[in-house]
């Protein structure tokens, strides 16, 4: 899943990038409010972590702009302000959750996973597609009760497919959610990863629909 982190404290932003990437997220980091408006409106993200105190344009203004332009991605507000009135302003602007500094990285990761899971229509912590199970809190997969050993990119791709199980996902959509802004989006590499995943989860679980994309199917 691809996450936008908007945080002007460079050291904290780097820590968040490392923690999120270490837990299977694809991350873009922005330090300025004006650039955040552009990225949020023009790139595809599954969620965002948004600081309120930003140069150029404050976080609430950024969030207002995203919502005004129909951007529905879940947003976690990140701020040193712990007053109730500030939280109310954030929720009224369209925030989905609120974390006050200082915080534990693990908390932010779990909140993001929960928001992304619910945004994709899954109420249960465990997402299942037949014998394939994904634990959204731990970020791990099991097949028929046995743990799956996946590379980082295989895990990222399978996470997106299982969040969208039974729906056809185009190569373009996969690329938008699996590559950061500064990485080349290579459809050929997706084919290679899909082929490797089929060997691990069963070829029949991931269908290719010619000219359309891929679909994760329930093959119990």
UniProtKB/TrEMBL annotation:
What Pfam families is this protein classified in?
A: Response_reg, Trans_reg_C
GO MF annotations for this entry?
A: DNA binding
Q: Which UniProt keywords apply?
A: DNA-binding, Phosphoprotein
**Transmembrane intervals:** none
**Record domain Response regulatory: where:** 2-116
Q: Does the keyword DNA repair apply?
A: no
Which domain of life does the protein's organism represent? Bacteria
Residues annotated with 4-aspartylphosphate modification: 51
- What region holds the OmpR/PhoB-type domain? 124-218
Question: Where's the DNA-binding part?
Answer: 124-218
Sorted alphabetically, which CDD domains does this protein's record hold? REC_OmpR_EcPhoP-like (cd19934), trans_reg_C (cd00383)
What is the protein name for this chain? Answer: DNA-binding response regulator
